[in-house]
Amino acid sequence: MAYSRGSWKIRLAIAAIVALFSIVSYYMASDKNPVTGQAQRVAMTTDQEIALGLQAAPEMIDQHGGELPEQAAQDRVDRIGGELLQALNRDLAQQGRQNPFPFEFHLLADPQTVNAFALPGGQVFVTAALYREFETDGQLAGVLGHEMGHVLSRHGAQQMAKQTLTQGLAGAAGVAGGDVSSARMAQMVGQLVAMKYGRGDELESDEWGVRLMGLAGYDPNAMIGVMEILERSGGEGPPEFLSTHPKPPNRVAYIKQVIKEEYPDGVPKGLKP
Fold it and tell me: What average pLDDT does range 20-39 have in this prediction?
């Protein structure tokens, strides 16, 4: 019996050390975002983000059936993405800041998965299933701007830092509990926390979408049309885009609020739809 109590104390001490190390490592992983100027807890440098995105891009492309072999469609994606990027760089230059991310835009052949996503470092992807639904250039610009926002806010690097923290805490819980189920339960809790933060990231990226669209001369109200597309694309279940993104009705209200804050006197006339 004494041996059992001693073992429990040892496990608890080891768990405390593992947890403390994980927490300290997380809070020491701080870097200044060169685009926003904000301090962030991230798991890598911007150069490492770029390298990681370039390394992972071929695999992501393969998972979605390769790139769509329609040059005119890819040219359209490149043109609109380029307009957003140029507008961003001009705006940052006026603020004395610089965008370190060399964005590349990919149109994937996947005809079924309604989705768009970005890898850390600037690799942006849109599936053909979503692309086919766009009615205007502004809707495409809204999606590309949103995904660029993930990169500019360094959401991927932030999430990786959080995952490292939750994995460390899950390991500590497993040591303290003395069984695998304790670690699994702690990991599930960590995943729920990460999902909540992920949804906040999505709304922050909607802000980027609105801002970048306006800078590039597109009417940000086109993003509302994108939400309508996503809502009706659900079919028997929600599109994969909604597995991590907030539901369209919630985002429509938020986007309208952001537009009102960005343009308190109303959206200027003459912007591209």
Answer: 66
What percentage of the chain's residues is helix, strand, coil (to nearest 5)?
65, 10, 25
Give which of 83, 121, 84 is closest to 100, Cα–Cα.
Answer: 121
pLDDT per position as a tens digit, 193-250: 343 436 788 889 999 999 999 999 999 999 999 998 988 876 333 444 444 556 666 7
Calpha distance 111→70 (Å, rounded): 13
Residue listed under structure tokens 């990027």:
85
The number of residues making up the chain comes to: 273
At residue 195's C-alpha, the angle toward residues 64 and 165, to 5°, is: 105
- Domain limits of the chain? 2-262
Is the pLDDT assigned to residue 260 strictly greater than 70? yes
Note the pLDDT tens digit of each residue in 51-67: 988 998 999 999 999 99
* Predicted TM-score (pTM) above 0.85: no
Query: Per-residue DSSP letters for 50-87?
Result: HHHHHHHHHHHHHHTTSB-S-HHHHHHHHHHHHHHHHH
Q: Which of 20-39 are b and which e, b meaning 16 or more Cβ less than 10 Å from the residue's Cβ?
A: eebeeebeebebebebeeee
Percent of the chain with pLDDT over 90: 51
Q: Which residues contact 94 (CB under 8 A, 6 or more apart)?
A: none
- Reduce the DSSP state of residue 104 to 3 states and report it: strand
Ordered strands of the 116-119 beta sheet: 104-108, 123-127, 116-119
Tell me if residue 95 falls in helix, strand or coil: coil
Query: Considering only CA atoms, which of 68, 21, 18 is closest in space to residue 170?
Result: 18
